[in-house]
């Protein structure tokens, strides 16, 4: 019988802990996220949406910018899932790699800019809790995530671009051979 009551108490404690975490977010992280979103949207409005579009189109001409700066700017300014809309400034043949870069950056950005992908806060806050228990600074973790994230999205963008080009050229050749 003790097993059943212990299980019930443990089960309820799980939800109590979840409730405490939720209250902490409502009084802490959620207001910060709303303020960050408001600030980013205000900056875009001040600069002008057309200027942001023109600047982004120029950046996509260069491989490094296409898979680092553009996804970073898109994720920071628009967040998830709107960051994918920056893909409209990328040539069609680069869109798969651009998308891969954006998707890959949505977690590493969370430590410094939680507004960009609030859904990832569960993951980051879990890691942050462990870092805090070890008495290590969260800022260092967030900066390292961000830097490694930028490196990873460049690598993934370039590799995805190469894979895409290889597959499309193979498909085009097979299609031409089939038509002959």
Question: Outline of this structure?
Answer:
The protein contains eight helices and no strands.
Features:
2 domains, mainly alpha, 180 residues, 0% strand
Q: Please, could you describe this protein's structure?
A:
InterPro entries: PTS_IID_sorb. One of its GO terms (cellular component) is membrane. With 180 residues, this protein is mostly helical. The chain has 2 domains: 46 residues; 132 residues, no CATH class. The chain is 76% helix and 0% strand. Helix 5 crosses helix 6. The protein starts with a helix and ends with a helix. The mean pLDDT is 86.
* Strand coverage percent: under 5%
In round numbers, the mean pLDDT is: 86
Q: How many domains would you count in the coordinates?
A: 2
N-to-C SSE series? HHHHHHHH
Q: Globular, elongated, flat, extended or rod-shaped: what is the shape? A: extended
**Helix coverage percent:** over 70%
Distance between the termini: 78 Å
User: What is the rounded Rg?
Assistant: 22 Å
For the largest beta-sheet, the strand count, sense and barrel status come to: none
Number of helices: 8
Oligomer: single chain
- Pick out the low-confidence regions: none
The beta-strand count equals: 0
Q: How would you classify the helix and strand content by structural class?
A: mainly alpha
GO cellular component, one term: membrane
Transmembrane segments: 22-44, 64-87, 142-159
Pfam families: EII-GUT
InterPro entries: PTS_IID_sorb
């Amino acid at each position: 019988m003790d097993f059943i009551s212990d299980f019930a108490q443990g089960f309820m404690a799980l939800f109590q802990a979840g409730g405490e975490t939720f209250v902490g977010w409502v009084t802490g992280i959620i207001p910060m996220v709303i303020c960050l979103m408001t600030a980013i949207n205000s900056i875009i409005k001040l600069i002008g949406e057309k200027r942001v579009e023109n600047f982004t189109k120029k950046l996509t001409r260069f491989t490094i910018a296409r898979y680092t700066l553009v996804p970073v700017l898109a994720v920071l300014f628009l967040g998830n899932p709107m960051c994918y809309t920056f893909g409209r400034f990328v040539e069609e043949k680069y869109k798969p790699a651009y998308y891969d870069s954006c998707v890959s950056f949505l977690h590493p950005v969370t430590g410094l800019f939680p507004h960009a992908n609030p859904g990832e806060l569960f993951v980051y806050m879990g890691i942050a809790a462990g870092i805090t228990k070890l008495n290590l600074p969260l800022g260092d973790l967030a900066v390292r995530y961000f830097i490694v994230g930028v490196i990873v999205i460049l690598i993934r963008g370039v590799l995805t671009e190469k894979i895409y080009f290889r597959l499309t050229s193979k498909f085009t050749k097979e299609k031409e051979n089939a038509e002959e």
